[in-house]
Amino acid sequence: MRHGLIIVNTGNGKGKSTAAFGTLFRAWGRGMRVCVIQFIKAETGNWGEIRAARKLQIEWHTLGDGFTVLSKDIEKTANRARHAWELAQEKITSGQFDLIVLDEMTYAFHERWLDIAQVIAWLQEHKPAELHLIVTGRDAPPELIAFADLVTEMREIKHPYTRGIKAQPGIEF
Amino acid sequence: MRHGLIIVNTGNGKGKSTAAFGTLFRAWGRGMRVCVIQFIKAETGNWGEIRAARKLQIEWHTLGDGFTVLSKDIEKTANRARHAWELAQEKITSGQFDLIVLDEMTYAFHERWLDIAQVIAWLQEHKPAELHLIVTGRDAPPELIAFADLVTEMREIKHPYTRGIKAQPGIEF
To answer: Which pTM value belongs to this model?
Structure first.
C-alpha cells in the first residue's frame, strides 16, 4: 500500500517550490492525480510553471496576492491565505488527488494567519493515508518538521543577483 | 538579452535532480527548448520523470548504467559517463536548446572520469552565452561552484527511510 508522505522543502535557497514542481512532473508522468495550491503567489502572475500546468490541464490554484512585507492591506493577504487553507482542506478530503502541493504555506504559519497546531491536528484526523502532501516555504515551523516524513533544507550557496544578473524567465519564474 | 546561467544543485539531500526537473517544467511552460542528459541513471529505468518527458516529447538521454559503488565493471560506467559528456558537448553547441540539464554529472568529477578544469575550459570557450545549464549531484567540486552563477545545497533534515518507509513511486522516482 502506498504510504502518503508529508514532505517539507524549506530553507533560504532556491529550489523549494521548484523541487515540488519537479515532483509534480514526476508524479504526473506516472499518471498520478496532482494539484497545486499557492498561498502567496499572485493570481495575475504569468509564471512558467503555471503555463506548463495549463498546457497539461493540471489543477493549479493561485490564491495569494503576491504578499510582501510591504503589502498595504495585510488583512486582505491574511484572508487569502486562510481561504487557500480552506480550499486545501477541500482538496485533501476530496479523494480526487494523489499528490497536493501547498506552495509557500509556511508564510501563513510564520505570520500567524494559520495555527500550526490546528493544521496538524486537522491533517492527522482528515488526511487520507495514501495522499502525498508537499509543503514549501522558508522557516518551516518545528512542529511541521516534527510531523513531516521527509524534510529538505535548500541553502543558498551562491546567487546571481549578487553578481548583478537579473532573474531569468523560464529559470526562476 | 538572456543571460545563460550555470546552475548547480548539490548537497546530501533530496531535490537536486527534482528541482532541475521543476525548472525544466517551468522552462517548457514558457516554450523554451529543453534537454536532459543523465550521467548515472540507467537506461532501463522506468522513472516518473522519464515517463513525463516522453509524454511531452522532451529530449531525454539516460547514458548511465545505474552506477553504484558496488558496480562490477567500473570502467564501463566510466566510459558511459565520458560518452554522456561527449553527447552534452554536442547538444551544448547545437544551438537547438535553451536549457540543458546535466543530471548527476558531479559523480564523474568525483570519480575522476572527467576533469573539472578541462570541462570548465571547454564551457568557457564553447557554451553559447544564452544557454542555461543545470548540473546536479553530490559533492560539486569547488571549481564548479566558483564557475557557477547559482548554487544551492540541498541538505537532508529528515528522511523517511530512517523511519522504515520505502521509497514511494511518483515521489522519489
So the answer is: 0.91
Phi, psi of B148 (to 5 degrees): -75, 160
Instruction: Tell me the three cell numbers of residue A121.
Output: 491536528
pLDDT in tens, B78-136: 888 899 999 999 999 999 999 999 999 999 999 999 999 999 999 999 999 999 999 99
User: Residue A4 has which C-alpha cell?
Assistant: 502518503
**Environment class of residue B80 by beta-carbon count within 10 Å: exposed (0-12), middle (13-18) or buried (19+)?**
buried
Chain A residues with CB under 8 Å of B165 CB are 3, 5, 149
CA distance A119 to chain B (A): 20
Nearest CA in chain A to B33: A170
Kind and range of the H or E run holding A9 = strand A6-10
The complex's ipTM? 0.88
Model pLDDT for residues A111-157, shown as the tens digit of each residue: 999 999 999 999 999 999 999 999 999 999 999 999 999 999 999 99
Domains of chain B: 6-155 (3.40.50.300)
Q: Do A26 and B3 touch (CB under 8 A)?
A: no
Residue type, A95: G
Per DSSP (E only), the strands in chain B are: 6-10, 34-42, 59-64, 99-103, 132-136, 150-158
The torsion defined by the Cα of B89, B95, B96 and B98, in degrees rounded to 10, comes to: 90
CA distance A165 to A38: 27
Residues in chain A within 8 Å Cβ distance of B173: 26
Compute the C-alpha angle B6/B10/B14, nearest 5°.
Answer: 130
